[in-house]
Amino acid sequence: MSATTIKTAIAAVEDKGVETDLELYGVVDKQPGESVYSLAKAMGWSTGKTYAAARRLERAGMVHIDKTERNGRNVLTIKPKTWEEYYTPEELEEMRQPEFMNEVEAIVKKAQLIDP
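Now predict its structure.
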């Protein structure tokens, strides 16, 4: 096998992984707190595929995986990050100031004038 063929194969697997991760994220976003097992069942995937995609999403900082107990069993649950977690405390405080929304509205209006 040539190096080009191997690189193409690796790229194809990575692309498929990204698609899988985004598909899982869409379901997790709509059903936060579900277990890996129930998500796998809902999607028709193996628990291994679901867990691997969830771990990639966790490493990317998009979800939290928590161990919880349900019906006497330990299960892994997946929740998306809240929008607040993407900002620093300072940025959140700035957003709470009344003048912040005035600045946002001005930026949006300016953008609409430039690109209607």
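The chain has a mean pLDDT of 85.
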